[in-house]
Design a protein that fits this description.
alpha+beta, 2 domains, seven-stranded mixed β-sheet, five-stranded mixed barrel, 9 helices
Amino acid sequence: MGIFDFFKKKNNNQENVNTLVQEMEMPEEKVVVQEVAEEVVETIPEIPSSQVEEPKTVNKEFEKIKIYNDYIVYSIALQLRGEYTPISAFEKENGEVEGFAYMVTEDAYALAPQQAIAQMEEKFENELQEGKIKSYMILYHSQFDNNDNHNPATKEDEFKAISLSYHFEGSDKAKTGLPYIFENQNVTYKGFAAFSHEENNEIMNHQLVDGKDYFPNTEGIAAPEITNEAGIIIRKSNVHNLVNTWSGVFGHENFQTKDYGQYLTTVLMQSTVTDSSDEDKSKTEFEDVRFKTIVTDELSTIIPEVKTNYTLDFETRSIREWENALNLQAIVAGPARETFGVWFFATDYAENRNTYMAQPHLKVNISGIIFILDVHTNMDLPDGTKMSEDFTTYAPSQDLPNYACFDFIAQVVDYKETELLEDGSVKGYILKLKLITNEENEDFFTIDAFVNKENMRFETPTKGMKVTGALQLQGKIAE
């Protein structure tokens, strides 16, 4: 994974960096003409005087920080791609400027903005005092609104500016900010109040070099980890969410274009204020899938759960708890049937957290949500080896690590059409997928999985066909 892989990207190109800077109103210059009484002493031929231009005022702060224009523009470009992570850069002894950022590794753990900013500042202050660098700048999103409030933004209504916190050798620490406003899903940058219109334009029109590595200096972030008394490894994550899961339920394109988020929010709010009724259940309980609401004093959320009776003997070896969900959601991993490895999103973790922590040996129901599905036709491995017709397999996803996501080649044992929502507008299939072929046990690892028709690259499944794709496994402790 790269530096910013834990944030959603639109593409890898610089986007709209020359965003409009609102022209700043400058005080009107007044020309004062001093009237002098005419006093003729002697007639002297008038010699036209050459027009003398007043020397241009140099903005010392602008001249200092403009060496960081690359990173100001980079921070803007990240925001336009929906990425709000703090970044930084420093000036080396030879005058070169390089970027530094904390890298999210396979551990899927990111520092909170306040922590990242504090650690960056401590690191650079030490290097500045030791003479290793000449200056540094930390760029982050803040509550700054042309005032002195440069506190990091952590809530949706607090994002008001990109703050620049910098320190140059021989000068005091300083901060300034680039305020912005959100208008009709666009971002308008107001410009730096202390800089002229021309200086602001110089920053905003600055172009990044395509293909240049602006962050040759990175530091990986290790996730907190302990082993509890039951011998289960407990790791932490704070960057995971259920966006991909819901996209699998509603269909990738529809999830982007229709306001299903508002629908889910409404359902969740109703579940917190009313007792369950037939009307409420019609919005959350469907024939093959339920939208499970979880309401606690600290967290309210809703998750999709594919109904199944399929059960596996399972041993919990590790749990990856989601700190950003207050440790009430988790990925559970370990061997099943004492044979093959499985990890799944535990749909019952909020209510059964203590059981998962204390009892390694469990019986669990396993099902899945398919993100993409296609017909499998190539029976050859990359090295040319021929695969048998009954070959099936699954492997951890490289695109979505630590999400309990798997790439697979499976056989469709059976299928049925199904619908979700009150009006039946979300249409899909429940597929019985054989993920491991075992001659002695037909259901050795054969799960029920939901696929939205929109996420299929073919029209209709048939029994016995081979399919390939990506899915997320989910599970719960069997009753």
